[in-house]
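Homework help thread (please don't just give me the answer)

Our assignment gives two proteins as sequence + structure token strings and asks us to describe the second one. The first is just a warm-up. Here they are:
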Amino acid sequence: MSGRGKGPLAGVRVLDLTSVLMGPYATQIFADLGAEVIKVESPQGDTTRFIPPGPDHSRGAMFLNVNRGKRSIVMDLKQPAAREALLRLAKDADVFIHSMRSAAIGRLGLDYAALAAANPRIVYANLYGFSRNGPYRDYPAYDDIVQAASGIVDLQAKLSGGQPTYAATVIADKVAGLTGAYSVIAALYAREKTGRGQEIEVPMFETLVSFAMVEHLCGSLFVPPQGPPEYPRATSEARRPYKTSDGQIGVMIYNDRHWQNFFDALGNPEWSRDPMFENMRSRSQNIGTVLAKVAEVMETRTTAEWVELFRKAQIPATPIATLTDLLHDPHLEEIGFWDQRETAMGTIRFPGIPTAFSDTPGAIGDPGPALAGDSVAVLRDAGFAEDEIRTLLDTGAVQQDEGVEG
């Protein structure tokens, strides 16, 4: 497999019992960075397999992307033989990661105590909706639910005339996935110093509340509060791409130097001497009025004229790009961001690894695996005898893709 054995996580083995997007995104990062990721699926398979479009009914585009570089083994973990086989796999694993609710993983007999008994060095990561220590522990959670519960939907409403909306990306899944990834890597680093594994909990709800409150806790950081939990610049209805005379543009006139350069480029008009533009504090206190005045001025020139002016003035600005534009973006093309290759499923294009390592660069692996495509190979690599493998297959405790030779 083209991504394994390279990168800073080369030599790390991950047992991945996650599905949908949060957990698979975390383990995709591990695979990109060189870890061996064994995706343990139920006989039904990860539900994202069946989201079109895709080259066949069980490998849609999102699945192929977020599960790249992994191997798939199908285990019916309700069978004791499958559970025992998984615990044998865990003896040589560095990481065990799942995205089931706490009660569900406990019913399977695969909680941290069981895995630590098999391998005291294992890093065990729980990724789920709500912390198991609170009253929401048994609530089901998906991205939309966590966006609604964490304040993200309410924040979106402030920018859409009071109409609650979801962010147009699965932000809860991806932020929690990133949090899971760095938490596991931190635990692996701690293990190198102590020799001991540990258990990690990454709940989506708490992760998104923490994420939203980085800037929005604001005046409520203080007790008693000095203001509401809201960062006014981010929630101002005037905070939106500016309309130009022929289109729209994204502009961030932020610090004092930016504002002075902006006014100098405009010839320092009379309104630029208004005290509310004087410094960060006065601008923040009048942010709606400030942004509205800029919006009025922006309509006087074309997008191209503004981009040229802002680039000369060293003010952050860019035309509004569509997702289609990004597929042909000159910067992304020049740095080789898009990983395009020929596969058995045709030409595939992956987004590249955004981070760069000077000594141990990662590599993108093959598209997401066929369901149960690697079951027998995974067991053989773990030292299972041929008669043991045959028994597991015959009983259905483990399943193998019929299109793959055993």
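The one we have to describe:
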Amino acid sequence: MIELQEGIIPTVDVRHPYAIVAITKHGVQMGRDLQQKFANADLYYMSKFEQGDEHERHIQLFSGTVRLLLPALFKQYKGLILIISLGAVVRMIAPILVDKKKDPGVVVIDDRGEHVISVLSGHLGGANALTHEIANLMEAKAVITTASDVQKTIPVDLFGARFGWIWDSEDKLTPVSASVVNEEHVAIVQETGEKNWWMHDTPMPKEIIVYSSMQEAIAAKPQGSLIITDRLLVPEEEVLLENGVVYRPKSLVLGMGCNRGTSLEEIEAIIDETLQELKLSKKSIKALCTIDLKKDEACFLAITQKYGWEFIVYTPIELNEMPLLNPSVTVFKYTGAYGVSEPAAMRYAQTTNLLLQKKKSGNATITVARLTY
């Protein structure tokens, strides 16, 4: 826990470029929900609202006035998302402002989650783009007060954030952003994930071109690239990463079953091994699905909490409604369902086309499906 003291700048654990801060009961719940959707943010809130899962979720608690926390956050984060009243924020940040080229973007959310307000560094600090992203995630109203919001293009470090997309590496975020801002030729290749990512009411800049395949983009020799895929790139495709960013949409679903008492370590090893065989990214997993008999299985609860995946359980009736590829009388005898991993993955992904049919490994079975968009 961070204990705030007058005159001492606290030490904070910075893991992401953005910070969410809440100081009220309602604000804390909004912050917890927002952190699940906006994967590039660290969350801070007052220790009196502790819920017991903060360590697992890397949530940082603090005691004392939030005013003493802001100087540390101001120096170390690209943007601050403050669920605090606008007037209080203005008073607290006034003494620590430097200039618009150095200050982080600051966004304020009201305690009812109705308005997301760009407060500081709207253009250079990215607060306007961040405001739009957060407002979309929360289904709130974005409030932008600058005279013109000129950068109607793609904010590279926020691209797809409202869908939960995360980038593989931040190494090329700055140079690719420069390519976008400087109107250089930027290629976009999307293999999976949500399609409605263009968020402006004007056409996309002509320099940003969507290509139908990696090969087509490579042949076009762009100066920058944005790649949206759950697939691990093969060596010949990595030329696009010389000035490119890979985004991982939440597009993969795991269907799993296991013997009672299977360890977290075994389950994670099975998942990692399977994804490596399929050349898929773990960052793209959205949900782990199973039968309701396993709703309290410790290994499933632990791994979904560890990575922030959805944990979905289905009844035997719901599983039996799916067209089973490999029905098992033995499984039916013990569970009432003719299968677990396959129908669970198919039901969530709403597809019968599996990337991996049921595979038995150790104490578990695993199936992988891809969401259709």
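TA reply:
I won't write it for you, but here's a hint about the kind of observation we're looking for: Residues 171-248 form one domain.
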